[in-house]
From TrEMBL, chain A:
One GO-annotated biological process of the protein: cytokinin-activated signaling pathway
Comp. bias regions, Basic and acidic residues: 193-206
Compartments, record wording: Nucleus
Similarity field: Belongs to the ARR family. Type-A subfamily.
Chain segments carrying region Disordered: 164-212
Pfam families tied to this protein: Response_reg
Highest taxon listed in the record's lineage: Eukaryota
Alphabetical UniProt keywords: Cytokinin signaling pathway, Nucleus, Phosphoprotein, Transcription, Transcription regulation, Two-component regulatory system
UniProt feature, compositional bias: Low complexity: 179-189
Gene3D superfamilies xrefs: 3.40.50.2300
Organism the protein comes from: Brassica carinata (Ethiopian mustard)
PANTHER family: TWO-COMPONENT RESPONSE REGULATOR, TWO-COMPONENT RESPONSE REGULATOR ARR7
Positions bearing 4-aspartylphosphate: D85
Name the record gives this protein: Response regulatory domain-containing protein
TrEMBL record, chain B:
Chain's role: Functions as a two-component phosphorelay mediators between cytokinin sensor histidine kinases and response regulators (B-type ARRs). Plays an important role in propagating cytokinin signal transduction.
Entry's free-text remark on domains: Histidine-containing phosphotransfer domain (HPt) contains an active histidine that mediates the phosphotransfer.
Protein name according to UniProt: Histidine-containing phosphotransfer protein
Entries under Gene3D superfamilies matching the protein: HPT domain (1.20.120.160)
CDD domains the UniProt entry points to: HPT (cd00088)
Molecular function (Gene Ontology), one example: histidine phosphotransfer kinase activity
Family matches, as SUPFAM superfamilies: Histidine-containing phosphotransfer domain, HPT domain
Amino acid sequence: MAVGEVMRMDIPAGGDLSVTSPELHVLAVDDSIVDRKVIERLLRISACKVTTVESGAMALQYLGLDGDKGASGLKDLKVNLIVTDYSMPGLTGYDLLKKIKESSVFREIPVVIMSSENILPRIEQCLREGAEDFLLKPVKLADVKRIKELIMRNEAEDCKTLSHSNKRKLAEDIDDTASSSSSSSSSSSLEDSSVKDFRSSKRMKSELSSPL
Amino acid sequence: MELGQMQKSLQDYTKSLFVEGILDSQFLQLPQLQDESNSDFVSQVVSLFFQDSDRILNDLSLSLDQKVVDFEKVDPYVHQLKGSSSSIGAQRVKNACVVFRSFCEQKNVEACHRCLQQVKQEYYLVKNRLETLFKLEQQIVASGGMISAMDLGF
């Protein structure tokens, strides 16, 4: 499996997601020792593998993006999700997000930003830069469950897209009069990060518009 | 004291912490993160909070005692403490930090000194209450009783 290619799921024809799915491996980045402990448990209880680091620099080092090592030899890292605090000394969560999205190897990994401050321009800036979602601290179990479901759903849709386009090709080969209403989901690129951003930002905006 | 009475005391005591605003609902997240694989999580994370807060309060005192106070240093400490207290549900500590930060922004040294005292007060209060809470739990467990997450929430 290539680095950055997030886990494959074997989806049977019925599209049932309850088939065995491998555990997500989450890289959690936070300078607070208390928050690291909490986020680690939140993720483990949610059946994720977790690696915690205390800074953006250490996250980049872990991923092999710090310039010292190449990104090769990291095939077994398989980070499926990065969750990072925004306000950290040195590299902020936003800086880390940018570096990840600039990397051809890691840019497909979803990044979720956490912050104790509900600052709309900050949230929008992160979503524009390609963050998958934004969590307001203190993080709760329901937040982690929601993020996990989002990530798993995106992965499943990516797989479905692939398998649908394969099936479609087959169908076209066999029968030229395949119905024109062939799955429209295969035409929308679910890897289009702007689509994800839009959906996330839509959700965030509706959440933000509720009275604080 | 008989087990049922101890358990009632624990419930009442816990409830009082919420009623007084010392703890908020975030504290109720913590027992949900405890299971057989990590049966001590709540006391571990709270101990970690105590250690971390002791360190921060010490650094804060030192920073504020400088002849020329460097608010670029002070504010991040308060931010850290605000964050960690929020994460474990220590509401009054968190709120005191919020006030503290606004005076940091104004670079008001005197007010900041008062804020530090306030934060310390709230911190020692929650520390004291939580230590008592854990003692009550230990007594129940020692008497053969069980603590359920329900005892900590209502």
